[in-house]
Specification:
Layout lengths: L5 E5 L3 E6 L5 E7 L3 E8 L4 E8 L10 E4 L4 E6 L20 E3 L14 H14 L18
Parallel strand pairs: 1-8
Antiparallel strand pairs: 1-2, 2-7, 3-4, 4-5, 6-7
InterPro entries: CS_dom (IPR007052), HSP20-like_chaperone (IPR008978), p23-like (IPR045250)
Family: Belongs to the p23/wos2 family.
Main location: cytoplasm
Length: 147
């Protein structure tokens, strides 16, 4: 059993955790008030992943959800205490080698409205509707001719 690599970021109403597992199957996510469990099988080698996260703060399990794409599983954890920032995902201050901060999606959310879950749904729908087989061949795309 291996830990799945994950990135996380904080928002006003929710915390998002993206597990970077390609071609996942048998995905199971169990949300509890102070922790959540993630497990799946991924890749052609059928590698088993299991993560248990003791959370920094409490969540509302019934309002938390996850979506699977070809490349990852994105979890939206609904905060019990809206507006309270989470300086870290885990209760324990020790650094997990499988967990990193998603700085691309991290932002100052002080003035955000309650749009996190609808944005999550829109993003998930967009990712699910995108195919990966018809991408253009980008070999040599970075080669530019300088005059």
């Amino acid at each position: 059993m291996h830990h799945a690599a994950a990135k996380w970021y904080d928002r006003r109403d929710s915390v998002f955790v993206e597990f970077c597992v390609e071609d996942s199957k048998d995905v199971q996510v169990k949300f509890d008030k102070n922790k959540f469990d993630f497990s799946c099988v991924s890749g052609t080698d059928n590698i088993k992943h299991q993560n248990t996260v003791e959370l920094f703060g409490a969540i509302i399990p019934e309002e938390s959800k996850h979506r699977r794409t070809d490349r990852s599983v994105l979890c939206c954890l609904r905060k019990e205490e809206v507006g309270k920032s989470w300086p870290r995902l885990t209760k324990d201050k020790a650094k997990c080698n499988w967990l990193s901060v998603d700085f691309i999606n991290w932002k100052d959310w002080e003035d955000d409205s309650d749009e996190d879950l609808s944005s999550f749904d829109k993003f998930s729908d967009m990712m699910n509707s995108m195919g990966g087989d018809d991408l253009p061949d980008l070999d040599g795309a970075e080669e530019e001719v300088l005059i």
